[in-house]
Specification:
Length: about 70
């Protein structure tokens, strides 16, 4: 997690109930970090395939006011 925070780039973030979920890019890997907001702790850190998680984040991207 320290490596991700120091050298990774935050790509997207979303919420799922009490979880704050962030997608990072680090050295051509995509890492998803799940943080429990109520318990104030990291629940999981895992390398993911971008195409497997893209739909989870698309609902949070709003482009209607782009112009």
């Amino acid at each position: 997690m320290v490596l991700i925070m120091d050298s990774g780039y935050t790509l997207l973030a979303r919420k799922d109930g009490p979880l704050s979920i962030k997608l990072f890019e680090l050295n051509d890997f995509f890492v998803e970090v799940k943080y429990h907001l109520i318990e104030n702790k990291i629940v999981s850190v895992e390398i993911v395939n971008l195409k497997d998680v893209t739909d989870d984040y698309l609902a949070n991207i709003h482009i209607e006011n782009i112009y």
